[in-house]
Every structure is written in C-alpha cells, then in structure tokens.
Specification:
The chain is α/β, with parallel strands linked by helices. It is built from 27 helices and 25 strands.
Length: 885
C-alpha cells in the first residue's frame, strides 16, 4: 500500500515540478536545480516501487523502506505545492523580507528532503531493489489497463446479489418460522462474512410484497435511536414530519401507533449491542406481542443479542464443501468448472477459505484474472500462512486480496474509509473524490478510467455497485463492514485518512462525519488535503478557519446547517471539490468565485437555491456541476453564463426548462456550446427547440453519454434521426415522444427508457448489441408487443426488461430458444388485460426475478401463482428464480 501511495504522490510531484518550472520560473529560480534533482531521483525510485510493493508483503525491511519513500514524497509534494500556491497569492519582489524568509524556509526544507532521499536510495541499494531484475513494463499493467478497460465502454458490472448459493433451504426455513404466530422476532446469528445480510436481502425482496410496510434498516455500531426512528418513519407516509422534532419516547409512541395492527416486516441489519437497556426494538417503538402482526428480522454476530431481544435464534451455518466449491467457481471461473491444471490447487484454496462466503467470493474474484498455475500456487501458500496465524482468518484473507490489488487500485480502495459505516455512496461523487485527490491519471478520458477503477473493485467483490431504477443514470455503491474495517486499518497505517475525531497531528485527510459538531475547531494541520464535516449540525465557521489550509483539495460540508461560507474559503487556491449539498445556503457564496482550480461543485438538495450567479462562468476548470433537487425555479432560470464553462462534462440536474428569449437565461443553442458535456436532462416546451434539434443542434455534442429528453407538448412529437450522430450514448431516456425507429442504430446504448411513448414501434430493438436495460413505461394504445421480442438471439445482452402501465396490452410474444439469453429480471407491472403467459419463460436460464404486479387476468395469474402450471415449469428448470405478483 505504501508503495502504491508513494507511486501516486511521486507522479504528482514530478508533474508539478515540470509545470512550476515552466509557469513560475521567476519565483523558483533559486530552487530550479533542486527541483530538477528531485524530479530525477523520484523518477529512479518510482521505477522500482511496484517491485518493492510485491516484496513488502513478506519482507518487513522493504515495507519500512516504502513507508520512508511515501513520507518523503508527501513532504516534497507539500514543498512544491506551497511554492505554486505562493505564486498565486503574491507577485512580490524577491527583495521583499517576507519573500526572502519564505525562500529561506523552503531552502532548508528542500535540503532536508534531499538528505532523506539520499539515505533512502542507499537503503534501497542495500535491499537490492535497484539491482535485482524488475518485471518489464509489459508485465506491469498501466493504470488504465488496471481497470480492465476504459470506463463504461469496456467494463461489465456484476449484477447485484449475484451467485446465490445455498440460500433456498434457509429462506424456506425462515419463512416457515415467520408464519408462526409465536415467533415475532428472528435473529440470524453468525460470524462476520458468513452471509447473514446476503440471505436476508434475498428473502426480503421475495416476501416484501406480502406486507403493508416492509422496511430495511442498517444498524451501525454507534447508532442514533432518533435517526433510526426518522428513517423508519420515512417509509410510513407523513409520519417522518411528526417524528422529526419530538423526543425519542414520543417518536416511539407514534411509530407504535402507526404499525399496530398492520402486517409489517422490519429488518434490523447488523445489531451489536446486547445490554438489556439497549433493546433497539423497544426503543424504536416496534409493536411486538401476541396480537401484533409485526415481524422483525435481525442479523447479528452476538448471540447475546437474541436473549436481550427475546428473539428466536437462527444459527447461520457455514457452507458445505460442495456449496463452497460452487460459490468459489462462480466467482473464479464465472460459474464454469476449472481447467484441468487448476482443479487440484483450486480445491485446496477452497479448503483454506474456511467455508465462509465472503472469503470465497473475494478470493475467487481475485484469481479470476489469471490461469497461471504459479500464481494460483502462490495464493494457496499465502492463504496457508495467514490462516495459521492467531488473528481472525477472514480479516487476514481479505488483507491478502487487498495486497494482490494493482497499485493504482489500492488508494482508491483505502479511500472508502472516508465514509461512515453502512453509508450508501453515490458512485459519481466517489470517482470525483478520487480524481480530486490525484488517484486518477490526468487526461481527457480521466472519468472513464475512474469508472473503470470502480468497476474493477466491484468485479473483485471489494465493493457492491447497483443502479437506482427510480432515478435515471445514478449508480450507488456500498462496502461490507469487514472490508470497511480493513480500509480503515490500511488508511491509519499509511497516514492517509483518520476517521477518528481527536486524531489531528500530521493528518492528510480528516473525516468528522456525524459527530454532532456544532462549531468549527480552532486549528487543523497545515498539510491537510481533505476535510469533511458531513452531516454535522454546525451552522457557522470562524472567519479565519480555513486560512491555514492552503493545500486543501477536498472540502465536504454536505448535510450541515450552514447558510453561508466565510471569505477565507476563497483563499483555497488548489481546492478541486466543494460539496455544499443538503445545506441551508440560499445562493452560491461570492467567495466561491475565487476558487479557480475548482473541478466539482455540488449544490444538490439545497432547497433554498433559486438562482446561479452570472459570475459562475469564471470557474473555467469546472467539470461537474450538481444542482439536482434544488428549488423548483432553478431548473428554469439558469444563466446563459453556464455556456462559458468550456470544461463542463456533467450537469446533473432536474429536467432543464430552457429559454427561447434573449433574456440572459440559458437556451438550447447555449447548451450546444458545451462540447465536452456527457450528461444532460432537458424538457422541450417550444416548437423553436424542436426545430433546432431537427437542424442538428444537439448532434454536435459528440461526447454525450447520458441523455434524457422530455416533451412538454400535448401531443407526441418526433425526434430527428440526426441524433444517431451521438454514437457514444450509453443511456437514452425519452418521455412523450414517438419512439424513434432509428434508436437501434445507437450501437453503444446500454439503457433505453421510453415513458409515455404511445405511438412507438418497438421492432428492431432486439438487434441492439449492447442493450442491458430496457424500460417501456406508459403506453395507452399498445395491445401486442412485437413478436421480434421473442426472436432467437434477440437482445443478446439484455439483463433487465420492464414493461409497465400498458393499459390495453393483451398479448406478449412467445420466446424462441436463445431469446434474451442473459435476462435476469423481467418485470410486468400494471398491465391488467394480459391474457396469455408467453411460452418459453422456462428457457430463460439466468432469470432471477419474475414480477407480475397488478398484471393479467385471473387465468393469467393462476398459471403464474405458486403451484400453477407455468410456475411449476419455470421452477423445474430454474428453482432459484423469484416469482411474485
């Protein structure tokens, strides 16, 4: 890890030295030789870091050497950045006393760094790091190839909750227990990584429709009862408003009254506390008793929790040998059997994983990239060594998987320790954090590479990623609590991130999330790169609070109660990311105008923000602007000045209502000037806008990836075929248009959503080679879906098909053998007139979920209901599929 961090920091230092020498030669003329020397020495050291990192796992002196390299690289980075920032603050004459003193201090620090580098080089020679044979560049993947391809184009995202093994019998057993009136609470007990949460996730999705209220709550080790009460109440109409500002006791009474007598399912995931005074069920106000219809499912590692809660204990047994083999092969060989030369060593590796699902998944995924027998034997030997140690074998196995990561991915994984336990993370925000921190190599395809890193971590089972089907384009991720513990330990070891409130000395990054902080602290380290006050009730910062933080790159004030910012923020000349989302600010503070390096600005869910300032055009480096879920007026009053943000790539917003007048507001032709734009949501309300599109005004946005266009007209409109010029489109959402026949020519499209597109021709969609998700929602005229939907070899990559709110739909096509070969989820909802169940559903071998909510005639439903003819046919071929109506 230290090597990976040092590699990244050294790269940034050498790059900055080159930039500094070219741009600010007058300031650093006295140090030019020193900087050139640093660049040369760091380049030599950098060449052996990957080799040293591979040896550091087993050789402690090399690990210590790498830590020394990392520390000196950070100190050199501080020096170069301070010189660069000095040039931004002052143009003083070199004879100025302050300038002379600054140069004197820098000179002493540079000489100290040079001495340390000489010592490090000498120690490296003694360890034979420079003389030994180092793997050739062809054996060391570049940071781009480390991600398995270039972003969204070359990565396949593993489906959420994939590869369920040995859960069917457990789900049936738990369901039987829940049907017993004498068992209101069931606690699933097992060690970390045994699959408790995975089991209940699958069960929850299958049975939630049976309950009037079905709610999932994640319980952290230091949970807030009132926060959980608010989360619980948010699923029960307007109860959240009533619960928010009352005492815990009163909130419990309100929740109890709302759930009393109603058939409810509440899941409390990962309960830790076993003391009787910490009975979470009583504290939340859940109605438990013989007359209650509320069922509670709990996961815990502590068997004492069962006694405290009065729960029926369900012991989560480890997998059998056969089940362990099946799960391992699912991740190591994509569900296939191993090649002959790997079968024996694979079998031994499975034994070393101790029948624990998490260990099997992550170990299998880490080996899926190679079939070299030597690498498999090396992994086996490492597993044997760590399993025989006294420490928790699961943690040691997870650590091994981390150690085998490519260098470029290690800081990205450890950075996850910045987030609190059980946090649902916006993927787009995460990759912008990585970029702001310098983890992603600079270049035009920087965001692609960052997405590639994220998907690679997901493919290695170190991160769980999924899409929110109710919010177009937004992806989320989450990290298992054991992996979060690992990320925190690694970060502390490497002085990267301190998630502990009172650890300030020499920290590079500080997280003060959800600490109840109400006022700013008096001081923070001068070398600070990241500062987060995420979800603290702080209302105001001292005027000079940010003055010392000249090196700050990331500032997260989201979820705080601030309504303004101190002017000292304007002095953060290298700040790249500013998150003000979900705060009380009413306008973008004027101090933001001075943040000339700003790349990411988020104002999402700032409900009081009605306008953006015209001066926003000065933020020439801005690439990502998030103004989603702000005041209703904002989306229709964006200033024309936005068109001057020439670097803007992502504009995350509600549907933009653009102007057609010369009133200083943003127009469609202004949007067309943003040639780097990759994401756009817009609603068309004027004939003039349609004519502009027909004239090709949007077809020049060649880099567009995600496009959503809605029609504000009373009748459906046509979109011109010139939009096929947007060949990089991966997501297209159309509302109230005639579904264009040309859409099938968008060969890179992965997600297609057609809302209220009545007069649409769905033929030829089955030919789209890369379509993963197809959502057809709201069609008042369609009676039959095209037979082409069932053609053999049609929809070769489709994983999710949703047909919803087709009021007149009566017939679906039969499926030929080979049709929708990889379909996993088929939703048919609010289609009340469907008479016939399509033949061939049993041929969908990868199907995991078939939903027919509020759909079909009585005969249709009888055939799909449990025990029905089609239900039996599907279950015979695919017993794991979840069928529900």
């Amino acid at each position: 890890m230290a090597g990976a961090i040092a590699q990244g920091v050294i790269g940034k230092v050498t790059e900055m030295i080159v930039q500094q020498a070219a741009q600010e030669a007058a300031l650093v003329i006295n140090f030019s030789r020193d900087f050139a020397w640093l660049k040369e020495e760091f380049t030599i050291i950098s060449d052996c870091l990957a080799y040293a990192d591979s040896r550091a796992v087993q050789e402690k002196p090399i690990k210590t050497w790498l830590q020394r390299v990392r520390d000196v690289a950070w100190d050199a980075e501080d020096i170069v950045e301070e010189c660069a920032i000095r040039s931004l603050y002052t143009r003083s004459c070199v004879c100025n006393p302050d300038e002379l003193f600054f140069r004197y201090k820098m000179g002493k620090r540079i000489q100290e760094v040079k001495e340390r580098i000489r010592s490090i080089t000498e120690a490296g020679n003694q360890l034979k790091l420079f003389s030994d044979l180092v793997p050739s560049p062809s054996e060391q993947p570049s940071s781009a190839s480390a991600a398995g391809g270039r972003g969204w184009k070359g990565n396949s995202l593993p489906p959420r909750d994939s590869h369920p093994v040995a859960i069917e019998s457990k789900i049936q057993h738990l369901t039987t227990l829940m049907d017993e009136s004498t068992v209101p609470i069931i606690a699933v007990v097992g060690m970390g990584g045994a699959g408790k949460t995975f089991l209940l996730q699958n069960m929850f999705h299958r049975i939630r429709q049976r309950y009037e209220h079905s709610i999932w709550l994640s319980i952290s080790q230091s949970y807030s009862v009132h926060k959980l009460q608010c989360d619980l109440a948010s699923h029960m109409g307007d109860l959240e408003v009533r619960v928010k500002d009352v005492s815990d006791e009163r909130a419990a009474e309100l929740i109890h009254g709302c759930l009393q007598g109603k058939k409810s399912l509440i899941v409390l995931d990962d309960v830790w506390r076993a003391a009787r005074e910490d009975n979470i069920i009583t504290s939340l106000g859940l109605p438990i008793g013989h007359e209650s219809r509320c069922k509670v499912l709990v996961t815990t590692r502590n068997r004492d929790v069962c006694q405290n809660l009065g729960a029926f204990p369900y012991q989560m047994e480890l997998l059998s040998e056969d089940e362990s083999w099946q799960l391992f092969c699912a991740h190591a060989f994509r569900g296939n059997l191993p090649p002959d030369h790997l079968e024996v060593v694979a079998s031994e590796i499975v034994k070393q994983c101790g029948r624990l699902p998490l260990a099997l998944k992550i170990t299998g995924a880490s080996l899926s990239v190679t079939t070299e027998i030597s690498q498999w034997k090396s992994k086996l030997q490492q597993l044997i060594e760590v399993v025989n140690l006294d420490t928790d074998p699961v943690i040691r196995i997870l650590r091994l998987s981390y150690d085998s990561l490519l260098a470029a991915l290690k800081p990205c994984f450890s950075y996850l320790s910045l987030f609190p336990e059980d946090e649902i993370i916006d993927c787009e925000y995460l990759i912008n954090l990585w970029t702001a921190e310098g983890f992603i190599p600079p270049g035009e395809d920087q965001l692609d590479v960052a997405w590639g890193y994220l998907y690679q971590l997901a493919n290695l089972c170190l991160l769980e990623v999924w899409e929110d089907l109710n919010k177009d384009l937004i992806k989320y991720c989450k990290i298992h609590d054991l992996l979060l513990d690992l990320a925190i330990d690694i970060s502390k070891e490497n002085r990267c991130i301190f998630a502990v409130e009172n650890v300030f000395t020499d920290a590079k990054r500080i997280l003060l999330a959800k600490k109840g902080i109400t006022q700013s602290r008096s001081s923070c380290p001068r070398s600070l790169r990241t500062l987060s006050f995420y979800k603290n009730p702080i209302e105001i910062f001292e005027a000079n609070f940010f003055n010392p933080m000249r090196l700050l790159r990331v500032l997260d004030l989201s979820g705080t109660n601030i309504s303004t910012l101190p002017q000292s923020i304007g002095k953060l000349k290298v700040l790249k990311l500013l998150n003000l989302s979900e705060t009380n600010i009413e306008e973008v503070p004027i101090c933001v105008k001075s943040l000339e390096s700003l790349v990411f600005l988020s104002l999402s869910r700032c409900k009081h923000v009605q306008r953006l300032p015209k001066w926003i055009s000065v933020l020439k480096c801005l690439q990502h602007l998030n103004i989603q879920d702000c005041h209703d007026e904002l989306s229709s009053h964006l200033p024309k000045a936005i068109s001057e943000l020439v670097s803007l790539r992502v504009l995350r917003s509600d549907e933009l209502k653009l102007s057609v007048e010369d009133d200083g507001l943003l127009k469609l032709e202004d949007v067309a000037k943003l040639t780097c734009l990759q994401q756009l949501r817009v609603i068309l309300n004027h004939d003039q806008e349609l004519r502009s599109i027909e004239n090709g005004i949007l077809s020049q946005l060649f880099k567009m990836r995600h496009l959503s266009i809605a029609s504000g007209f009373s009748i459906e409109s046509h979109l011109p075929h010139n939009l096929t010029a947007l060949q990089d489109l991966q997501t297209l959402c159309l509302r109230k248009f005639v579904g264009p026949s040309w859409v099938c020519r968008l060969t890179n499209l992965k997600q297609l959503v057609l809302f209220n597109c009545d007069r649409s021709d769905y033929r030829a969609l089955e030919t789209m080679p890369n379509l993963i998700e197809l959502r057809l929602e709201g069609n008042a005229s369609c009676r039959r879906v095209s037979k082409a939907f069932g053609k053999s070899s049609g929809f070769p990559k489709l994983r999710f098909l949703n047909i919803e709110d087709f009021n007149l739909l009566e017939e679906l096509p039969d499926l030929e053998d080979g049709a929708m070969a990889v379909l996993e989820r088929f939703h048919l909802e609010w289609c009340p007139r469907v008479k016939k169940v399509p033949q061939g559903l049993e041929r969908l071998r990868r199907l995991k979920e078939l939903v027919y909510y509020e759909t079909g005639t009585n005969e249709f439903r009888a055939r799909l209901n449990e025990g029905g003819e089609v239900w039996n046919k599907i279950k015979t071929k695919n017993p794991h599929v979840d069928i529900r109506g």
